[in-house]
């Protein structure tokens, strides 16, 4: 019996361009004392080879999506493109392989005595050109590390470890601008030691900080056919996963009474026109967080919408694009609302009785927002994601 254990060195969430490190241990457990006493000799296990590979698999709803022929290669063609091994990690799975790294051989011909184990380190860089991990209404992108091994004269056994990949779009453009700025202010002292070039992970985190740290308040006057409803202020338009979206409502100069409002963080999954089975492009909307408040007689109020760590930031692929927006719903009234009469004495309280019915109408408004990734470690710490897996080969 062979026991295979795999453990990710630093969580199961990664940015594209980051290097994945996975420790893989192959062991031959010690037999029970009773079994060992009955056997004439120790049984040595022999493994022919072991390989590891990362691939991204796209699954689609066949009733809605027509997968592009240009990228619809068979699993065997993509997995064995290197022709180095017969290792096919995606065999038997449904879907389309849209990204696949080159298989890496961990070892060949390893013998393990009872109680002996050997550990190997698998390192691979996630390509930048792939889509992020995503579970949508019609499209799903899933990343996996697949470890395959084979005993002598036995079938190949596979073990899979799911990982989550975040993608920061147009990172090369930001990198170019950052390098240009650094060259303009960099000293030219020939005696200074040359600094080590920053990794893609460090550059990506700097870009995220630069984009999402800026506060640029934007003001919007929201009106309907009867007049001004509210003045809305949002502090910025670019956010990272885990942040709070904060907005301020000002009703002091409103001419139309607003009874209540709600704000929802929504995603729009838009299928590409050439991938739609129906003639009209399909847009699927999903709500994640919501703020609801009664605002009659209020001068100012605010809303706070948390951005879940589980969602996927905006992206675009050959099949689908994902966008984010704030969806507002305002309930206004044209009925005459009686004022609250002040008390004649400071010691007396006043109770206001609202009308039994109101003539109301609802207006909606959408405000696009940009949602970006955050540090992978923050997500791994905030969400219970499995980082280990094991396999028993008998």
Written overview of the protein:
By secondary structure, this protein is mainly beta. It is 12% helix and 45% strand. The strands form four sheets. Strands 2, 4, 5, 6, 8, 9 and 10 form a seven-stranded mixed β-sheet that branches. Strands 13, 15, 16, 18, 19 and 20 form a six-stranded mixed β-sheet that branches. The longest helix is centred in the middle third of the chain and has 15 residues. It is elongated, with a radius of gyration of 29 Å.
Describe this structure in a few short sentences.
The chain is mainly beta and 394 residues long. The protein has 5 helices and 21 strands. The chain has helices spanning 33-38, 75-79, 171-185, 200-212, 376-382, and strands spanning 2-8, 13-15, 19-27, 45-60, 96-100, 104-112, 117-125, 134-135, 139-151, 156-166, 218-224, 227-234, 238-240, 244-250, 258-271, 283-294, 300-306, 315-316, 320-333, 360-372, 388-393.
């Amino acid at each position: 019996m062979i026991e295979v254990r795999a453990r990710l060195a630093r969580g199961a969430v990664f940015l594209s361009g980051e290097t994945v490190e996975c420790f893989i241990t192959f062991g031959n457990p010690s037999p029970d004392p009773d079994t060992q006493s009955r056997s004439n000799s120790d049984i040595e296990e022999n493994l022919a080879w072991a390989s590891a590979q990362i691939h991204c698999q796209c699954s689609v709803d066949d009733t809605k999506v027509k997968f592009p022929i240009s990228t619809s290669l068979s699993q065997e063609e993509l997995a064995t493109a290197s022709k180095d091994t017969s290792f096919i990690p995606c065999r038997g799975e449904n879907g389309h392989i849209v990204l696949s790294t080159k298989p890496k051989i961990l070892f060949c011909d390893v013998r393990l005595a009872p109680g002996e184990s050997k550990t190997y380190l698998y390192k691979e860089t996630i390509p930048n050109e792939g889509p992020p991990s995503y579970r949508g209404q019609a499209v799903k992108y899933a990343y996996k590390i697949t470890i395959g091994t084979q005993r002598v004269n036995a079938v190949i056994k596979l073990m899979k470890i799911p990982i989550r990949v975040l993608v920061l779009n147009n990172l090369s453009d930001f990198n170019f601008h950052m390098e240009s700025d650094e060259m303009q202010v960099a000293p030219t002292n020939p005696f200074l030691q040359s600094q080590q070039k920053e990794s893609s992970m460090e550059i990506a985190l700097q870009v995220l900080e630069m984009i999402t740290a800026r506060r640029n308040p934007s003001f919007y006057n929201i009106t309907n056919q009867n007049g001004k409803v509210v003045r809305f202020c949002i502090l910025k338009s670019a956010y990272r996963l885990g942040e709070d979206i904060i907005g301020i409502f000002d009703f002091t100069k409103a001419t139309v009474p607003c009874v209540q409002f709600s704000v929802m963080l929504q995603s729009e999954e838009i299928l590409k026109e050439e991938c739609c089975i129906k003639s009209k492009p399909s847009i699927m909307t999903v709500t994640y967080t919501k703020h609801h408040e009664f605002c009659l007689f209020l001068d100012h109020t605010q809303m706070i919408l948390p951005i879940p760590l589980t969602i996927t930031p905006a992206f675009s692929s050959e099949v689908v694009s994902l966008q984010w927006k704030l969806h507002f719903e305002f309930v206004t009234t044209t009925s005459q609302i009686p004022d609250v009469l002040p008390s004649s004495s400071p010691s007396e309280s006043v109770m206001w009785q609202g009308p039994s019915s109101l003539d109301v109408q609802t207006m909606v408004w959408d405000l696009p927002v940009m949602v970006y990734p955050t540090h992978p470690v923050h997500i791994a710490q905030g969400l219970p994601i499995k980082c280990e897996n094991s396999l028993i080969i008998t």
